[in-house]
Amino acid sequence: MLKNLLLLSFIFILAACGFHLRGVAGSYSFPFKTVLLNCDTPVICPSLRNTIKAESLTMLVTNKESAEVVITVSNEQTSRDTLDFNSVGQIASYILTYRVTARIYNLQGDQLGNDIMVQNQQIMAYNNSLILSSQQQEENTWDQLHQNVINALIRRIVYFHDAPLVSPAYASESR
User: Fold this and answer.
1) Which residues pair with 103 in a beta bridge?
2) What is the dihedral of CA 82, 84, 87, 89, to 10 degrees?
3) pTM for the structure as a whole
4) What is the pLDDT along the chain (175 residues), one digit of tens a residue?
């Protein structure tokens, strides 16, 4: 158990070091110069906002008029499902799942591209005799899941392309 706790602590420390995409630091950014981030209830919104600012991915604005696009983060879903049991019928592990959906809108309110759905899952070992330790472990696992979803969401937005693969003019000429 101590070995698992140390491993979990080490992984958490590595995850807390920061977010960096592959390549040279600072060589990536959102494809939009100014963004209004619209998040009502998702847990990840303060951390998402802080990560965007810390990484200088784009300029976050507070009003729609000065934004190029509006990114809305919604449909937050969490689940904690039993994965397996030990030999005496007690829960041995859970699978924790966190999912959010993001949509990108232009200023006219039209959605650009498809919904961006990001999900992350982790298996968490559970020991019924160490309730406080298990609660702390679960909180750390949720924090990791949230950070993983933030990183994946940012990657999806950085590489977001709304342009069609073939222009309509080229498609009509080739017929």
Assistant:
1) 72
2) 20
3) 0.72
4) 666 766 666 665 655 555 444 444 456 789 999 999 998 788 999 999 999 999 999 999 999 999 999 999 999 999 999 889 888 888 888 999 999 999 999 999 999 999 999 999 999 888 766 665 678 888 999 999 999 999 999 999 998 875 444 444 434 444 4
